[in-house]
Design goal:
single chain; 197 residues; alpha/beta; Rossmann fold; seven-stranded mixed beta sheet; 7 helices; globular; binds S-adenosylmethionine
């Protein structure tokens, strides 16, 4: 779709990280196959992945959280411009605070797309698991972070803390007996996580 191509170009030119092409394709197919009803997204950015999910899942409603006000406003324009505004609830502010509130309100989702600050996945994911409907899916992007997470090469100092936390996150989701996890080597690495029923 032309509008999405323009939005992706805008994001790349403005150094706003959005889904890589392979990940966008995967996400669209995944949402289209499963036809989710209630989706929560952590990390709206400019509304690129959110729009992809809503266009692929015609029955879906999206709640999406973003810290940066400028991106939040741009995302509002994106959703309205694509005629998706009435299926979106945008939340502005820190994801952890919103996640705690949604969790306290006992909100449930059949898909949670985790694409916010990578160093926080470890902190967010127990609450997010609690917010999944039975058979709901937690999808986390960038879990292999530029190949650094599973590499034995030295990680650049600036990325070290984040990569260490992502490694711990992967270790937990891959070894917990109550979870079923698949790591897709697509784009920057996508984890598909379910609670065993
Ligand atoms: C990888 S981008 C999201 C990309 C978007 N999902 C897409 O593909 O179109 C991550 C986003 O998380 C936002 N973010 C960073 N820290 C955050 C926080 N503590 N709470 C909420 N959002 C945060 C950033 O501003 C950024 O827009």
């Amino acid at each position: 779709m032309k509008e999405l191509e323009i939005l992706e170009k805008f994001a790349r030119e403005n150094h706003i990280p959005v889904l890589l092409d392979d990940s966008a394709k995967f996400l669209a197919e995944f949402v289209n196959q499963k036809q989710f009803k209630n989706i929560l997204e952590i990390g709206t950015a400019v509304g690129y992945s959110g729009s992809i999910m809503l266009l692929a899942g015609q029955q879906a409603n999206l709640t999406t959280i973003e810290l940066n006000a400028e991106s939040y406003n741009k995302a509002t324009k994106t959703f309205n411009g694509l005629g998706l505004g009435d299926r979106v609830k945008q939340l502005l502010g820190d994801a952890y605070e919103h996640i705690c509130i949604l969790n306290n309100e006992n909100k449930k989702y059949d898909l949670i797309f985790l694409d916010g600050p990578k160093g926080q996945y470890l902190k967010y994911y127990p609450l997010l698991l609690n917010m999944l409907e039975p058979n709901g899916c937690l999808l986390a992007d960038n879990v292999l972070f530029k190949g650094m997470v599973r590499s034995s090469q030295v990680v650049p100092h600036k990325k070290r803390a984040m990569v260490t936390k992502l490694r711990q996150f992967l270790k937990e989701i891959e070894t917990r007996d109550d979870l079923q996890t698949t790591i897709h080597d697509i784009g920057d690495g996508i984890a598909e996580i379910y609670k065993k029923q």
